[in-house]
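Build the 3D complex.
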Amino acid sequence: MSKDTQWKYSETEINQEDYLKNESLMTVSNGYLSLRGSYEEGNMSYGHQGTYLNGLYEFHDLHYGEKFTAYPDKSQVMVNLPDPKTVKFKVNGESLSLETSKISSYHRELDLRSGILKREFVWETYTGAKAKICSTRFASSVEKHLICIKYEIQFYQGEGDYSIESTIDTNRHNISKEDDPRIGVEFNHNPIVILSRGLEDELMFLNGETYDSKQKFNVYLLNEYNVDGIKVDTETGILQDQFGDDTSIILYKYIWLDKNETRDSKRAFIALKNKGYRHALDKHSQWWKQQWEHMDVVIKGDKLMQKAIRLNLYHLTQNVGKDGLTNISAKGMTGEGYEGHYFWDTEIYMLPFFVYTNPDIAKSLLMYRYNTLEQARSRARQMGHKQGVLYPWRTINGEECSSFFPAGTAQYHINADIAYGIKLYYEATNDWKFIQDYGMEILLELANLWLDMGQFDHQGRFCIHEVTGPDEYSCLVNNNTYTNIMVKNEIEFLLSLIEKCQEESSGLSLKSMELIQTFEVERAKRVIEHMYLAYDDTLKIYAQDDGFLSKPVWDFAETPKEKYPLLMHYHPLTLYRHQVCKQADVVLAELLQPTMFTPEQKKRDFDYYEKITTHDSSLSNCIYGIMAAELGDLEKSYEYYMKTAKTDIEDVHQNAKDGIHAANMAGSWLGIVYGFAGLRIKDGELTFNSKIPKNWEEYSFHLRFKNQVYEIKVNQNDVKIIEKNC
Amino acid sequence: MSKDTQWKYSETEINQEDYLKNESLMTVSNGYLSLRGSYEEGNMSYGHQGTYLNGLYEFHDLHYGEKFTAYPDKSQVMVNLPDPKTVKFKVNGESLSLETSKISSYHRELDLRSGILKREFVWETYTGAKAKICSTRFASSVEKHLICIKYEIQFYQGEGDYSIESTIDTNRHNISKEDDPRIGVEFNHNPIVILSRGLEDELMFLNGETYDSKQKFNVYLLNEYNVDGIKVDTETGILQDQFGDDTSIILYKYIWLDKNETRDSKRAFIALKNKGYRHALDKHSQWWKQQWEHMDVVIKGDKLMQKAIRLNLYHLTQNVGKDGLTNISAKGMTGEGYEGHYFWDTEIYMLPFFVYTNPDIAKSLLMYRYNTLEQARSRARQMGHKQGVLYPWRTINGEECSSFFPAGTAQYHINADIAYGIKLYYEATNDWKFIQDYGMEILLELANLWLDMGQFDHQGRFCIHEVTGPDEYSCLVNNNTYTNIMVKNEIEFLLSLIEKCQEESSGLSLKSMELIQTFEVERAKRVIEHMYLAYDDTLKIYAQDDGFLSKPVWDFAETPKEKYPLLMHYHPLTLYRHQVCKQADVVLAELLQPTMFTPEQKKRDFDYYEKITTHDSSLSNCIYGIMAAELGDLEKSYEYYMKTAKTDIEDVHQNAKDGIHAANMAGSWLGIVYGFAGLRIKDGELTFNSKIPKNWEEYSFHLRFKNQVYEIKVNQNDVKIIEKNC
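Done.
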């Protein structure tokens, strides 16, 4: 295998401790479907096989000891599907198991450059036979329904019988509930009903449906062997034969998964299969090659960081939904943490990467919000708002899945985050048509919500009560500074667009036109002007919320290491009662709105909040790292950056088994681009304030901004910003 | 039947609409056991048979979509037991059913003076037979395990066969979950396991156990007939015989229920039975007669109010646990609302009635808190407190059952409420021994909690963050004024006791001595001195909490009547976001601490909060009524009083079916004693400021204070306070 280690995520032994983590990290996906990096043989007692379709969910009943109005009845859970990659290989009656068989020369690597997972090892059977097994898989980045697996066997010792069964294994389940609010649900039924399964010519098919949510899906499998005089049982798909010491077998598995959205899927699948494995592989690799041209970040002088950033960008790119109907969940499709839900992580953490490297994907993410506007409208009514929309805190299908509203529905900032995403996309792309057709409608409805929900107090200040900001260690607060800042910015942006509409021939969608008619422009202007931000005149810092600074500071000195993350060890009331932050809140707002605050202000806020932030959320380190760079503390910035970039590759939180930390991965990109390179948009223009960590030789990356591609190259001596031909 | 209607709660027809309500209101209980006022015949399709033992609960698993540290795993639910009152009466093969049979001359009345429920009616069978049936029941107030029923049948037309089966019906269940946070649970198992049942001589027995909580109970039944030549089948307990037009049968049912706490229960039961029905009845009535001498409130000139107050006092007295191991639940033992849980209702609403009329019961209620101190200690540790105890917001066995902590566990004021109860009891009884043996220990532990939880802020003010006050329409607030006031008072009281201990020869319990050693007296003094109370200098009112007055006022004009109670129609966030109160909060604090505030202050606070209080809690009207009286608005006070006193008797909230509103019932006593008569303790002495509603001729009641009984008699001309011989 290749030595080009900075493009490879690999392992050289089978290690129970790392196995689940690497199942997550070695996932192959294309944003539509995914396979966790489990073995084809499937019989690892400590593994968790996972096959997922983005957006395919089963309902899970939510129970409440005390249930109040507008509590969601059901959550949506990403379903673990029947497993089509399965290969059961027997030699002289002995089954291959990478857990119990005698295995040597094991090596597995994910080639990040091409999105191909390859594994090889030698198996010595109890009967003395030896075979080298090599399997290769990829989830086609070009044909979204397609997965290909090449399973090669080379005997080089012994003789006897062997059998190979390539099948769809239905004995796969979602992980069960753990005593951790972040993981798992308990279904009281099998989430999947198999409607039919069988063999049509050589095509093995399974048509299924989720039990309660009634979502149909299909799994197809075509097997192709290179063996002469092949003896495959057409009923079972089992190949049985004799082997000698130079027998070699190659099995190609073509797999198709769909959500029953196309009619002629079998025919389409057969046509793809007929083009052959090599064809599919080449097109797939080609796609990845092109992606890396836009998106690669090259780091010279730090091999681990080079590999880490590539692993992270690989996962962002492969896990993101690209069809405007799906999104990217907190764990991608690499595990079942957070039940496969989409959060604000998308707009605030991941979207910038796509906006600047692949704006089509960025647009499709925003289209997902547009396509779920109706659910957000209906949610706003449930929540008692007379107008506007309220996006769900966590969701798959656009409906709220949050069962603990203080750290869920109360995070109204999701609305402002989506607005921020639209603004970012528009500023970087100038895609006015998107604004006309979709963006304007979303923005108007988002603003309508704030106008309904916020209130001018008796001093004339616009206040937003009873929300939760990004920091979930303080819930149900008044005037969360992050929220108020983001809302101010959102409405400013909207008003600027309304002005632009009036100047230009409009071309707005009918719905936007209607909404503009009734939009309270004057009130919106007053909101901007009088938006209340909680500021402490003594400390000269922004308070995270009205009551925040009145609370006692958490006793960090008395908190042993093993009590982190705090949420796993302290009741929410204990956390809420103290000044202690799970993650960046005020500091994040100041990153996102760079021109609203003086450097001195940002410094004071950074210094204050850094002391009380635990970074128990994986969304925190990257933000602190970026702000440290802005504030001139490159050493500190680098420390935060290291923590960010290593989160998954070194499994810092010991929970990569449940899936990647997708937002944090994006944070490692932000850490370089916003952090070290100091990218900010100011007055609609790209600006940089670039630095380089002292142990790096050079880093470089590409950005697309207003239809121009730039290469940014920073070394210890200088900074180059090069305009490229698109 | 008697015409003395002011002692009778009665009905003259079988009315589906009122049936469940009257099942609740016609409950007979003695604080140890209870029977809802369901018919012996048991076959009402719209009824809910209920047989309960105070303190006997089954665990119910609590589920959370997202579960955090120290969330309770299980709730406790008062169990509906096998029903021993059952009588199945057949004539010529036709079963008597008060729902479907031809019934006339129906009358049922609960004699409040004697605690006896009597029902009579005439049944005309399809075969033309006519019988008058009269049944009488009481739950012995003297023998806590005993219930007696007399079931009389007088035929006066027709002839043929009849049969009577007197049995224990095991086909009884808890009410199932409704879409109302206040009612019902869903057991996924039968909460009761029958360990054995059978007949021993004539004693029908059933030994049972709750499924998960493993609490044993026994139900015994002895039947006695007055019929000559009786033909009772010893296996089934069925009496079968012929009747003519003057046949008369009397069945005496002796019922015994216990929690398996005594060994020789069968023998004890038989001994009681052998003394006969009349004996038991006389002793029972005698007890009630004595109670009424202490506790009756006589109202002349308002028959409905006279009846209402008696119904209310009857229920308080019969439903209260009297053994120091049980308490009185929000619904007594009259229904399954709030799952049979005990709340702060006890100390703040019900305890005063017992303190002033029956201090032994008051003491036993406080002993319940003493006896669950260990659970409260352990709960404080779970909640991260280094010292002190935290009482559960809702419980049966002393462990927290609240599954929604913002309106549950966060109500830390329960601690201060219990302290208040101890102070009230001590001030009214001078029971120094109780303080020495028990009270001091509780008070020290309660105060320890506050010293751990509260903090001095940078201005040196003692603050209590992140709690919920009595008003559940604002949750998780800082410096709830009610809480802070009550804590201040609680610690003042404790310090005065500590001083007294130092003056006198101590005699304290060992545990209290230990606790005093480490108690931070100086810090406690500083807490009192610097307790922060949120005061608004512009409005010159106490803010309910730090952020309360900054929120917009609820739009009452736009809220239609059918949207009340608000909690059933609006998401908590909508409620929390507004100035809107479910119930008295600041106003309650000012009632409980009468000397802390000027009359002008109380008036301003009353006027402000009254406008924004919905009284959606049944704990509210009584408090507003009392304060209106204090502030001189007798007319308004009377209106509130009427609403309070009528809550159950006229089923104002349409939910008496789930049980009485026990705290509100006590509120009707407070409304007279604290409200119209104006009782306050000031500097340890009784004071009165008595008034009388203009349409009443006179009201009078007795109070016991420091071993002296007083009769207070108020008419339109004067107020008499008469010292009585004890």
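Residues 170 and 223 of chain A are 18 Å apart (CA to CA).
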